[in-house]
Every structure is written in C-alpha cells, then in structure tokens.
Design brief:
By secondary structure, the chain is of the alpha/beta class. The protein has seven helices and four strands; from the N terminus they run E-H-E-H-E-H-H-E-H-H-H. The longest helix is centred in the middle third of the chain and has 19 residues.
C-alpha cells in the first residue's frame, strides 16, 4: 500500500517507518504540527525531521506552519480537551492530503508514543477515515517503543522532553497536578 505517515517528530517516526517498510508499504511522510511550542522547539523538531528525510530517503510533504495564536484560541479554557483538538487538527490535515494524493491509507506516529492518548488517536483517525473516505491504517507501534528509542539515539535525532504543546511543557517541568500561586503581600 501507499501510506501517508503523519510525523510528529523524527524519533517517534523511526520505528513506525521501519515497520511499515518491512511490511512492503511505500511510505510518504507528512509534517504538520501546529501544536509544537515555543517556536525554537518547533524549529528543532522540523530540522530533525529534515534529517530523517535524508537518512531514510523518505519523501516528506511539509506543511510548515507555526500557528501559536490559533492553537491557544482553540485550547484556552478547554485545556482538558487540548489533546482531542490537537490530534483532530493534525489527523484531519493528514487525511485531506492522503485523499488529494490518492494514498491507499494514512496513519500517524501518534500511535507509537506511550506518552500519547492512544485510544483517542485511534478514535479520531477512524472517524476521519469514514468522513474523508480514506482508510486509516492502524497498528499499535508502541510494541517497538524501546527499539525506536535505541534507533533514534544511534542516529542522533533530537529527543524532545515533552509532547509538543506549551501545556505539556508545563506539565513536564512542573508536574501535572502542581498548581503554583504567588502569595500577595501580606497574605499568610
């Protein structure tokens, strides 16, 4: 099959890409990640994907758009739903490109990371498949988690410390349940 693989980052793409090629599929990458913040983090991940493209001779379609304002408008005051918005935005774009490009299916590196909400990514991918008329290729790539980490380290890919959005950066460094508040002068 000719499959369009949404790539969130180079290190999460290594195992799914290798696995899909082992199965004999023709793979094209698609980079579209308006969720990654701040801008310097976005650029690091984009450059790492360009290195992946070169090392794997992988044709990649780039939708290089840094959309901080749009992301914040759609997640502010709905932070608990941010992953749903994020997955939907990226998988919708992938399904649309797959349909226009007459791909046999689309899939995502979101299915690789143990840090992602796997069932949610699958639900959204399957729903978009029905809506757009392009099959969603499902495989639980998490089984190759350790192998993918080893491969990406050997290849020297940039390894980020959080999912991508500004909220996940906060959670990574402050803890998901930590709420900080500065006391006003005179408050005890």
């Amino acid at each position: 099959m000719r499959i369009l693989l949404h790539i969130c980052c180079a290190n999460c793409a290594v195992y799914p890409l290798s696995r899909l090629r082992e199965e004999g599929h023709e793979i094209f990458g698609f980079f579209f990640n308006p969720n990654i913040h701040p801008y310097q983090e976005y650029k690091k991940r984009l450059e790492s994907v360009r290195l992946l493209e070169e090392r794997f001779s992988l044709p990649i379609i780039y939708r290089d758009e840094y959309r901080l304002d749009e992301f914040l408008r759609n997640t502010a005051f709905r932070e608990s739903l941010r992953c749903r918005y994020c997955y939907h935005t990226r998988l919708l774009a992938t399904a649309q490109v797959a349909k226009r490009g007459k791909f046999d299916a689309f899939t995502s590196t979101l299915l690789y990371s143990k840090q992602q909400q796997h069932a949610l990514a699958v639900e959204i991918g399957e729903n978009l498949s029905k809506e757009k008329g392009v099959p969603f290729y499902y495989e639980d790539f998490r089984k190759g988690w350790k192998k993918g980490i080893e491969m990406s380290l050997q290849m020297g890919f940039y390894r980020q410390q959080y999912c991508g959005c500004i909220y996940s950066e906060r959670d990574r460094y402050l803890g998901k349940n930590r709420i900080t508040r500065r006391k006003s002068k005179g408050e005890e």
